[in-house]
Amino acid sequence: MAHRLTVIGTGYLGATHAACMADLGFEVLGLDVDEEKVARLSAGDLPFYEPGLEPLLRRGLASGRLRFTSSYAEAAEFGDVHFLCVGTPQKAGEYAADLSYVNGAVDALAPLLRRPCLLVGKSTVPVGTAERLAGTLARLAPAGGDAVLAWNPEFLREGFAVQDTLHPDRIVAGLPAEQGAAEHAEKVLREVYATMLAAGVPFITADYPTSELVKVSANAFLATKISFINAMAEVCEAAHADVTKLSEALSYDDRIGGRFLGPGLGFGGGCLPKDIRAFMARAGELGADQALTFLREVDEINIRRRIRMVDLARQQLGGSFIGRTVGVLGAAFKPDSDDVRDSPALDVAASIRAQGGKVTVYDPQAMRNARRAQPSLDFADSTLSAVRGAHVVLLLTEWKVFREMDPGDLAEVVAERSILDGRNALDPELWRAAGWNYRALGRP
Ligand SMILES: NC(=O)C1=CN([C@@H]2O[C@H](COP(=O)(O)OP(=O)(O)OC[C@H]3O[C@@H](n4cnc5c(N)ncnc54)[C@H](O)[C@@H]3O)[C@@H](O)[C@H]2O)C=CC1
Ligand SMILES: O=C(O)[C@H]1O[C@H](OP(=O)(O)OP(=O)(O)OC[C@H]2O[C@@H](n3ccc(=O)[nH]c3=O)[C@H](O)[C@@H]2O)[C@H](O)[C@@H](O)[C@@H]1O
């Protein structure tokens, strides 16, 4: 009989995982402590923006295979496999990850686990967490040794979450040390991911710590690649060179590759920034801090891009933001997402506002989250209303609608034809030909 799955924590990761697994034919019960989220998901109303996910959610609900609850007792009774997908944000005022949600979820679930089951961690956690949680499970679960823990980190990207879940690059399974438990966990995971394995997706088994480290080192590598090209952008600015040409030329070298080599305002979001910081904190606890001191530089290069953007805007306005109007295009941390966690765009907008500028922001999907995160900013409901009367326009998130803007349309409403392209997303020649003063990070 097919395994019955639960997904604990139905945010960006969990809701996607739940809907995709239901679409693959499993019976899935999603659990969240946020009652409003449970109600919205149960009504087929996705609480966040993710392309292609809502139809899957609705299909799952209509089929009867997908349901949501806030009852741990119901989840424990229902599930053969429990996927742990709760958040692991940065602790306030520290680099380390806040594990209170992960601990809280396991503490709530474990005492209710009476029958054989597999608990599968997907949240991104500091190395050593799985081993500790396996101890919690052994101590609290009435099922005893029949409740087994595996660690199965997730690599999906927001904006491509459905595609990445159904067609992952690889599946990593962190297994317990005890052979019988490891064999059982691997067998169950292979059954759960049978569709992906049949399509040839690599399946890598490892011990707990290796599986946890695969995840954080992947994000550390991606962050490093972005900061590398942004460091080159800084040098290009000093040397009057063009980082976009540099990046293109590098990309043809297969050993380097062009992905994640996009220079601009740098990385944000609920993952890369907090994951590299948590990684540094954990390495410090392990006495391996020297190995990761370069990540501090990666973080600093990244933050410097935001400061540089604000400086460039101030320069463009003749040295001060006071009494000047700034139109900001983009609030999400990247296009095709409504996520504003550690968003470079919102950070820049808020900083200009704090320095006396009148800032109006527009984003195609992130307005609700942006308003909540930065209530002191002004918001508009379209590109043209955001830039109306602007002395400078800042493109900070490269949504398709912004990449395809007509310089002529904007010229009719702005106070000055001045644009800063924070994502190297526009064609400078096109904008300059239309009479705009076009400037970008890392290019003349
Ligand atoms: N967002 C992404 O693209 C990816 C996220 N991850 C990792 O997945 C984890 C979750 O991330 P997101 O989904 O982005 O976070 P999120 O904040 O969108 O979702 C977390 C959910 O967990 C719920 N929750 C908190 N405590 C709970 C508890 N005790 N029981 C049940 N539910 C509880 C929250 O109400 C929330 O709905 C993090 O560790 C993150 O690093 C990994 C890969 C991709
Ligand atoms: O652990 C996670 O949660 C996820 O974090 C990232 O995914 P995500 O945060 O959705 O977004 P990315 O596409 O990685 O972009 C991150 C940031 O880097 C920026 N970026 C990306 C690429 C690039 O070339 N340049 C650049 O500045 C984006 O604008 C964005 O702010 C990873 O790509 C996923 O594999 C991982 O699962």
Automatic annotation (TrEMBL):
Kindly indicate whether the keyword Kinase belongs to this entry. Answer: no
Biological or metabolic pathway of the protein: Nucleotide-sugar biosynthesis; UDP-alpha-D-glucuronate biosynthesis; UDP-alpha-D-glucuronate from UDP-alpha-D-glucose: step 1/1
Top EC class of this enzyme: oxidoreductase
Positions annotated to bind NAD(+): 32, 37, 88, 124, 158, 274, 341
* A GO BP entry: polysaccharide biosynthetic process
Against NCBIfam families, the record matches this protein to:
NDP-sugDHase
Reported function: Catalyzes the conversion of UDP-glucose into UDP-glucuronate, one of the precursors of teichuronic acid.
Say which family it is in: Belongs to the UDP-glucose/GDP-mannose dehydrogenase family.
- State the protein's name: UDP-glucose 6-dehydrogenase
Annotated organism of origin: Actinomadura rubrisoli
